[in-house]
Amino acid sequence: MSQPAPMITKDGRFAYEAAGDPNATPLIFLHGIGGAARAWRRQLATFGNRFHAIAWDMPGYGGSAPLASVSIPALADALQQFIAQIGAESPILVGHSIGGMIVQKWLVQSPKLARAIVLAQTSPAFGKADGDWQKSFISARLGPLDHGETMKSLAPSLVKELVGDDPDPKGLELASECMASVPEASYRAMMLALIGFDQRSTLKDISVTTLLLSGSRDNNAPAPMMAKTASYIPSAEYVELAGAGHLANLEQPDAFDRALGGFLDAVTARHG
């Protein structure tokens, strides 16, 4: 049976896609550096029958206005403005990669506003600007752009590096389309915003019900690191998806949705 298309909306500074009853519990999806609101269309279709499922275009992506100065704290402020703008009360937040970093930073300033959170294939820290791993990570991703490549030309190889075993072909295609459409200025700014991010000291203060969702083949947010992160969060559950790389919701949409759905069932039972 075909799923209804999501509603694509531009509201002030933010563009987003949504599905479901606006009066239902808000379920907000936050994409990664190479993503877009449309990367979550499968999840909007899956969960729009139970929730008001919403996926934003991060500032500087799609129809959302860029920030004057990009940083994780500024993105967390933008998230709070977005939540207020759409009138989302007690939302459940699903943050992938840098989206999960934004959620962690947002929780520090708004610790009681979320009903629950999902940290999907993300990290509590990126590290120091002068760290060898960090420097090589940034160089590998920005170097080709410095030498004349474009996001469109780089997209297939960038996505191939991110995925694990036997990714869903349609998900792979959508991942490449999203990556190719990221404005170069936004991609550069978001990569540099990672430097120095470190919320490890605040993990113990996360007081909302939390799911950490990892992929066993994810090299950007390795599963052992995510499992360790879960051990520092008081009410965290940890789920690892076998064979998934860094883009699990696109690579293994059925497995991702089952894991997320099970968590949402538990949250709903607990909170009503």
TrEMBL record:
It holds the Pfam family Abhydrolase_6. Keywords: Hydrolase. The keyword Membrane does not apply. Gene3D superfamilies: alpha/beta hydrolase. Residues 27-257 form the AB hydrolase-1 domain. Coiled coil: none annotated. This is Alpha/beta fold hydrolase. The keyword Hydrolase applies. GO terms for molecular function: hydrolase activity.
